[in-house]
Amino acid sequence: MQIDPVLENILEQARWAPSGDNTQPWRFEIITPRHVVVHGFDTRSHCVYDLDGHPSQLSLGALLESMALAASGHGLRMEARRRTAMPETLPTFDVHLIDSPGMPPDALAAFLPRRSVQRRRLSTRSLRASEKAALAACLPPGYSVQWFEGWRARLACARLMFDNARLRLTMPEAHKVHRDVIEWGARFSADRIPDQALGVDPMTARLMRWVMQSWRRVDFFNTWLAGTVAPRLQMDLLPGLYCAAHFVLLADAPPRSTDDYVAAGRAMQRFWLTATQLGLQMQPELTPLIFARYVRERRTFSRTDGMQELAQELAVQCQAVLGATAFDRAVFLGRLGAGPAPQARSLRRPLQDLLVAPAAPQ
To answer: What are the tens digits of pLDDT across the range 66-112?
Structure first.
């Protein structure tokens, strides 16, 4: 498919937006060189982390913000409007690119392909006042950031992640997701997470690969051989301690609708790109927020005995760490710090694979 060069450049940059497990829940339908339909979708039918579609909506917000940033480099302003008649599972946006002479390019656009997830240990150097100020200032109106710094606060966040990982690693519904989204023996992956980016040592990775081939093996190792301990230590507790700070992005009002989460995704992307611009590395920590929301909404997410009760305990722990006021307004949780860029990372599907043919006229 032949594409207008300017539009092709914008979409090439925007496709680097982050998404849960590198699902890339979007496809592009080109109507004209200045009108694109973004066909979004969520993964609630098969992903326990996306049962309400909100994580996918965050990702779609990040995509739209990325399109706006990339468009600014061509003197174009982006306007996106969601088609409210579409099902909640298929958020669809009409995106128009409007000529705006004199519009300056946004400096964050240069960091779209460089932004990545660093799951390994980071420096414990405290964030500089200038870094925190830049990160706070990059957020759009309606959003703020709360920091968790110092040994005691980092320990509380690390324990929260470590304890949530027990839920994540002992639930058969999550095992199905993990089995499908990891590309083993890989440094890079176009549509999944390469195992070398997980943050575990090679021996643990080899053991995980063998164990995760069946739920029976996972259950046996968890029951009799403390199978979750090594992954939880390497992927949750130690990284949670070895960083500059944890943070939570807060909306002024508790998010409820699709549009709320899309807007939050746009704020998240600006924050993440600003961290990249500052030379900081970042890792999302969304699991506590996801399962706390399931508890709050009384959403059943597992048929396994004890999982719902464990999630209730973890929701109480999450509220204690974040604080009651922040708990209801939290839209994104993560950790960051100085450190090298990851040597292994998720890539993206080629743009041609993300294009869909225009719908036939009625």
So the answer is: 999 999 999 999 999 999 999 999 999 999 999 999 999 999 999 99
Q: Which pLDDT score is estimated for 230?
A: 85
What three-state secondary structure class fits 248?
Answer: strand
- Assess contact for 346 and 189: CB atoms under 8 A: yes
Amino acid identity, residue 184? Answer: W
What number of other Cβ atoms are within 10 A of residue 17's Cβ? 25
Structural tokens at position 252? 């002024």
| Per-residue exposure over 304-339, b if at least 16 CB sit within 10 Å of its own CB, e if not | eeebbebbeebbebbbebbeeebbbbbbbbbbbbbb
Check if the beta carbon of residue 308 is closer than 8 Å to that of residue 302.
yes
Structure tokens given for 213: 């081939």
Structure tokens at 41: 């979708």
- Distances in Å between the Cα of 148 and the Cα atoms of 49, 83, 249, 362 are 24, 38, 12, 54
Q: How confident is the model over 259-273, as pLDDT tens digits?
A: 999 999 999 999 999
Nearest alpha carbon to residue 240 among 164, 325, 300, 327: 164
At position 124, the amino acid (one-letter code) is T
Cβ 9 vs Cβ 70: under 8 Å: yes
Residue 193 dihedral angles phi and psi, to the nearest 5°: -110, 120
Does residue 244 carry a pLDDT above 50? Answer: yes
Write out the H or E segment, with its range, that includes residue 10.
helix 5-14
Contacts of 334 (CB under 8 A, 6+ apart): 246, 247, 282, 283, 284, 285
Strand ordering across the sheet containing 35-40? 76-82, 92-99, 35-40, 26-32, 355-356
| pLDDT tens-place string over residues 133-186 | 999 999 999 999 999 999 999 999 999 999 999 999 999 999 999 999 999 999
